UniProtKB/TrEMBL annotation:
<feature type="binding site">
    <location>
        <begin position="810"/>
        <end position="817"/>
    </location>
    <ligand>
        <name>ATP</name>
    </ligand>
</feature>
<dbReference type="GO" id="GO:0030424">
    <property type="term" value="C:axon"/>
</dbReference>
<keyword id="KW-0812">Transmembrane</keyword>
<feature type="transmembrane region" description="Helical">
    <location>
        <begin position="711"/>
        <end position="732"/>
    </location>
</feature>
<feature type="active site" description="Proton acceptor">
    <location>
        <position position="937"/>
    </location>
</feature>
<dbReference type="Pfam" id="PF07679">
    <property type="entry name" value="I-set"/>
</dbReference>
<dbReference type="GO" id="GO:0016055">
    <property type="term" value="P:Wnt signaling pathway"/>
</dbReference>
<keyword id="KW-0547">Nucleotide-binding</keyword>
<dbReference type="InterPro" id="IPR007110">
    <property type="entry name" value="Ig-like_dom"/>
</dbReference>
<feature type="binding site">
    <location>
        <position position="941"/>
    </location>
    <ligand>
        <name>ATP</name>
    </ligand>
</feature>
<dbReference type="GO" id="GO:0008046">
    <property type="term" value="F:axon guidance receptor activity"/>
</dbReference>
<feature type="domain" description="Ig-like">
    <location>
        <begin position="601"/>
        <end position="684"/>
    </location>
</feature>
<keyword id="KW-0677">Repeat</keyword>
<feature type="binding site">
    <location>
        <position position="837"/>
    </location>
    <ligand>
        <name>ATP</name>
    </ligand>
</feature>
<keyword id="KW-0393">Immunoglobulin domain</keyword>
<feature type="domain" description="Protein kinase">
    <location>
        <begin position="803"/>
        <end position="1077"/>
    </location>
</feature>
<feature type="region of interest" description="Disordered">
    <location>
        <begin position="1"/>
        <end position="23"/>
    </location>
</feature>
């Protein structure tokens, strides 16, 4: 009892001590708890590797290909490996990893046994996952011979005793066996056959059973026959018994073949030879000897086949022995590509024997010496093994295959790769503009390293005509330009490693005119004119104008900055002037400009719309004055007049006379007047009608009076109209002259009509102004032009009340852009969904741009450009009604296709579809450029797409709200900065080539799912990048290299290096037909 009490007390004391101890350890326990919680959090955050495809056990045929597949749900940072019976597998030419899968080119029943499992390892977290085990059920069939099983030796065979033959053909699954004697199949009804043991048993063998026995077997792997047969010869002296059996022969063509065949019997047996079913007799090349030997001299292909030696005795069946005759042959070995290995790795290279008779023997040689079967580099079967590779292993190796027909070889060059080492590293360089510049990059390695150059992290393409990369790694900039002042990087790499070096290029800018003044220019008499001359250099140059003959500038001629300003042009201003640009570092340069004072084209008499009876003579008057004297030419239905046609006569004064007119002469006639300084045209319509039959005499009497009345009214109306137009002309010219004082005279070539306001300047005048002048003059002097314009508008007029607004899409410069339904605007449709642009601005320039845009869409007719369906101009605001597509603008479509929201996400866009979208836009732009229009705002937001992936170019231009972030306010205008080249932003130079640049950005949008170009840069950074010539969008994942190369060509800094839209269409057309895209 005391002991129990004592124990209880000790137990209580122990518990008390435990409590005290526990109160001292909470911090450690707390830390452990926190660690466990953190581990759990990490486990939750790092999702385990999950297999989406695991290797599966499968049937395989020995010697045939097979594949074990393995994939995980998230392949990022995953490295794959394979185990066989728990041991890692090394890649060989027969068995290797193909991405994540394990590929067998030829399954081997001896090597590829056991379990295979895929191991996926996360290279970042170190997590490792093992797949389920898989194995091959390898089916095979292997030939063997027929042997004597019982009794053990042939000498023990006796008549009337049991004899058992064994067939040594084996395979998996177990093959079924068939037995043959002298080519005749044996059945289980007449013979004792054991399929399981593959044996043939004679319970009481007799000479009647003698013969040549062989077996054949088949299973799922195929069908084979025994490769060594058994001749049963139960001794009966009267029965013929083989003494010498003929052997199969393989000989060279024209070589002799000898078959020995001998039988024994009492009395002596006879021997006969057969070729197929033909009994052989002595001939010139076939000799039969008395001892049974058959000799065939000069063997030809027709002699090949099966030969039978037949022995006949007094008793018993004939004994037939067979042998084949073949001509020796060996096929050529196909060439193989050189191999490059990294140092210190295990490598196996197999050599497949070519087909041949007999089977060729294969071995490896190096420098004529056979590779041994042991050592670091050795031969194992037909494989050459490097265990491991060393630099000294580089060189040429020969795979040799040989048989009686000859020897064939296959040369292979192996190179053990080393890492590059610098010989000449790239260095910062100062290069002169306009001359070739060189950047050196030379590294040594084995093999010769591959060198690539990058300019501002963008690879220099080999096909880029501006650069040449020499074999030693040197980069030549063929003609250095200012924007070549960038950071360049050279990368030299082999399979053994890579080396990179950077160099900055500083361009020493030459003193040059920007642009060079045109050597011959015209001044319009009595007008205010500026002649531009600007230059750049390492120092800002000073510009000075002088007369070429050394004379002083006249008082009304002065220099304003770099311009030569004529307050009012006089005849005496004609002559040669010299622009001199100079600075202290580079001296001076000169450009001579010859100025001609001219009076621009003015029409004294213009062609008018004319209606003529068929068979009569039509006269279209056209007289123009100018200085120098203008030349007049006619265009008939947009084709140059063929003056060799007898009925058409061009008069000295410019008028056109057409005799004996026909209805085929009906059409548009254009009178073009031009001289060396200006050109202008007027258009008239000729209508040829049949002469009506006159039946009323009183009508003839009234005709003269009506004619006089009509002429009087027409003349009065024309005089009033001319007065109004002359007033408009004076007002417009006054506005133009004011504009010219503010605008430069830069530009290289005549430009085209633009979709939006502005155009490239041409000799100080914008083409938009020139075209406006022509249009106004035409309106002021030709009532016919106004009638045509009115007629075209009348056809497009659409009742405003038949438009029903669905929603407002956004707002652009002109005003609101609406989505509406239009009743009966398309034939065969009760209602059509259309895009409506409203003109809500009072700004005169915007109103002109609105009319110009409507005019452009009315003139374009192409499946990839939206059609102008109608106009509402009877009241304000004016409406322009354009075609619309059901999926809306291309930008939204691209964004939705990349959305993670499954409710709105569309079907994935394939690469071919993306190329097709780009090709359709290119086709539309080719049509637009062929009609001399410039879009100026080409982007995904301004293209429409249908559910059938059909694309049309449009111009919603929602710059005020929806896509406000994609426009930039610059020089009092909103411009699509990220889609424009430098010349459009800084020089207001818009052309087809600037549209090509924008098209390159649009292609990038298509392949980036509508991402904003240069999304990581602010607008100011983009502006700076354009100014520095550094802007090029990066390569995108999933974008074919050929497409990105085309983008880079579109972004060429030089306009001449950018492709035309026709080139773009051809390139994309080739890509669409490429099966690899």
């Amino acid at each position: 009892m005391e002991l129990s009490t004592k124990n209880d007390r000790q137990r209580r004391e122990g518990n008390t001590n435990s409590k005290v101890t526990n109160t001292r350890k909470p911090p450690v326990a707390t830390f452990l708890s926190i660690g466990i919680i953190c581990m759990k959090v990490l486990c939750i955050q790092a999702a385990p590797i999950q297999f989406t495809k695991e290797p599966k056990s499968q049937d395989a045929l020995h010697g045939r290909s097979a594949m074990l597949r393995c994939e995980v749900s998230d392949p990022a940072d995953i490295q794959y490996g394979w185990l066989n019976n728990g041991q890692p597998l090394d890649d060989t030419e027969r068995r290797f990893r193909e991405v994540s899968n394990l590929k067998f080119t030829a399954v081997d029943r001896r090597v590829d046994t056991g379990n295979f499992e895929c191991v996926a390892t996360n290279t970042v977290t170190g997590e490792e996952a093992h797949s389920t085990n898989a194995s091959f059920n390898i089916k095979w069939l292997e030939s063997g011979g027929v042997t004597l099983k019982e009794p053990t030796t042939e000498a023990e065979i006796e008549s009337s005793a049991p004899v058992t033959l064994r067939c040594h053909i084996d395979g998996h699954p177990r093959p079924t066996c068939q037995w043959f004697r002298d080519g005749m199949r044996l059945t289980e009804k007449t013979h004792q056959i054991n399929n399981k043991e593959r044996t043939l048993t004679f319970k009481s063998a007799s000479p009647d059973d003698n013969g040549l026995y062989y077996c054949c077997a088949k299973n799922a792997a195929g069908h084979v026959c025994s490769n060594a047969n058994f001749t049963l010869n139960i001794i009966d002296k009267s029965f013929p018994r083989p003494v010498v059996t003929p052997m199969d022969q393989v000989v060279l063509k024209n070589e002799e073949a000898v078959f020995h065949c001998q039988f024994t019997a009492v009395p002596e047996p006879t021997v006969e030879w057969y070729y197929d079913a033909e009994l052989l007799t002595n001939k010139s090349r076939v000799i039969l000897y008395t001892n049974g030997t058959l000799l065939i001299t000069q063997v030809k292909p027709r002699n090949t086949g099966s030969y039978r030696c037949v022995g006949r005795g007094p008793r018993g069946p004939d004994v037939t022995l067979e042998a084949s005759l073949l001509i020796a042959e060996i096929e050529d070995m196909s060439p193989r590509q050189s191999r490059v290995f990294t140092a210190d790795t295990m490598q196996r290279v197999s050599c497949t024997a070519p087909r041949g008779k007999p089977q060729p023997e294969v071995w490896w040689e190096r420098e004529g010496v056979r590779v041994p079967t042991e050592g670091r580099v050795y031969q194992e079967g037909s494989e050459l093994v490097f265990s491991p590779t060393e630099q000294g292993d580089s060189g040429s190796y020969t795979c040799v295959a040989q048989n009686k027909a000859g020897r064939k070889t296959q040369e292979l060059t192996f190179t053990v790769a080393t890492a590059p080492v610098w010989v000449t590293k790239p260095q910062d360089s100062y290069l002169e503009e306009g001359r070739p510049g060189y950047l050196h990059c030379h590294a040594q390695a084995t093999p010769e390293p591959e060198v690539t150059w990058h300019r501002n992290s963008i690879m220099v393409m080999p096909e880029d005509p501006r650069f040449t990369v020499f074999p030693n790694g040197t980069l030549r900039i063929n003609n250095v330009e200012v924007y070549d002042g960038q950071m360049y990087a050279c990368v030299s790499r082999t399979q053994g490693g890579k080396l990179s070096g950077n160099a900055r290029v500083y361009v020493l800018e030459k003193l040059k005119f920007t642009p060079t003044p045109q050597p011959s220019q015209c001044l319009e008499l009595d007008k205010e004119v500026n002649i531009q001359c600007s230059a750049t250099g390492r120092e800002t140059p000073t510009i000075k104008w002088t007369k070429a003959d050394g004379g002083e500038l006249l008082p009304h001629v002065e220099m304003r900055n770099s311009q030569l300003h004529f307050t009012k042009v006089t005849r005496s201003d004609a002559g040669n002037y010299t622009c001199i640009a100079s600075n202290s570092l580079q001296g001076e340069i000169r450009a001579m400009v010859g100025l001609t004072v001219a009076v621009y084209i003015r029409f004294k008499l213009e062609p008018e719309n004319t209606t003529v009876y068929q068979g009569h003579t039509a006269i279209l008057h056209c007289q123009a004055t100018a200085d120098p004297e203008p030349r007049v030419q006619w265009m008939v239905k947009d084709k140059v007049l063929d003056t060799s046609r007898r009925r058409f006569q061009l008069m000295v004064n410019g008028s056109l006379v057409i005799t004996d007119v026909t209805t085929d002469d009906t059409g548009k006639y254009t009178c073009i007047a031009g001289n060396s300084c200006s050109i202008s045209d007027r258009v008239a319509q000729l209508y040829v009608v049949e002469k009506p039959v006159q039946t009323l005499v009183d009508h003839e009497e009234k005709a003269p009076y009506k004619m006089i009345q009509t002429i009087g009214l027409s003349v009065g109306a024309a005089v009033a109209y001319i007065i109004v137009v002359l007033g408009l002309m004076f007002y417009c010219k006054k506005r133009r002259n004011a504009k010219r004082l503010q605008k430069g005279q830069e530009g290289e070539e005549p430009e085209m009509e633009c979709l939006n306001r502005g155009a490239v300047q041409q000799n100080g005048h914008t083409t938009a102004e020139i075209q406006e002048e022509v249009a106004l003059t035409s309106v002021g002097t030709t009532a016919a032009a106004e009638k045509r314009h009115s007629s075209a508008n009348e056809k497009l007029q659409f009742p405003r009340e038949d438009l029903h607004t669905i929603t407002t899409l956004g707002k652009g410069e002109f005003g609101e852009v609406l989505l509406a339904k239009a009743k009966g605007i398309e034939e065969g449709e009760e209602e059509t969904v259309v895009l409506v642009k409203s003109l809500q601005s009072r700004d005169e320039q915007l109103q002109l741009d609105f009319r110009r845009e409507a005019d452009m869409f009315s003139k374009l007719s192409h499946g990839n450009v939206v059609r102008l369906l109608g106009l509402c101009r009877e009241a304000e605001p004016h409406y322009m009604i354009l075609e619309y597509y059901d999926l809306g603008d291309l930008k939204q479509f691209l964004r939705i296709s990349n959305s993670k929201d499954e409710k709105i996400k569309s079907q994935p866009i394939t690469t071919k579809t993306r190329v097709s979208i780009c090709a359709q836009v290119a086709l539309g732009m080719e049509h637009m450029s062929n009609h001399r229009f410039v879009h100026k705002d080409l982007a995904a937001r301004n293209c429409l797409i249908s559910g059938q992936r059909s694309v049309k170019i449009s111009a919603p231009s929602l710059s005020k709200d929806v896509y406000n972030s994609e426009y930039y306010h610059y020089r009092q205008a909103w411009i699509p900065l990220r889609w424009l080249p430098a010349e459009s932003v800084f020089e207001d130079d818009f052309s087809t080539k600037s549209d090509v640049w924008a098209f390159g950005v649009l292609m990038w949008e298509v392949f980036s799912h509508g991402e904003l170009p240069y999304t990581k840069l602010s607008d100011d950074e983009v502006l700076e990048g354009l100014q520095a010539g550094k802007m090029k969008l990066p390569v995108l994942d999933g974008c074919p290299s050929k497409v990105y190369k085309l983008m880079c060509r579109c972004w060429a800094p030089s306009l001449k290096e950018r492709p035309s839209f026709s080139e773009v269409v051809n390139t994309l057309g080739d890509l669409s037909s490429d099966s690899n895209v």
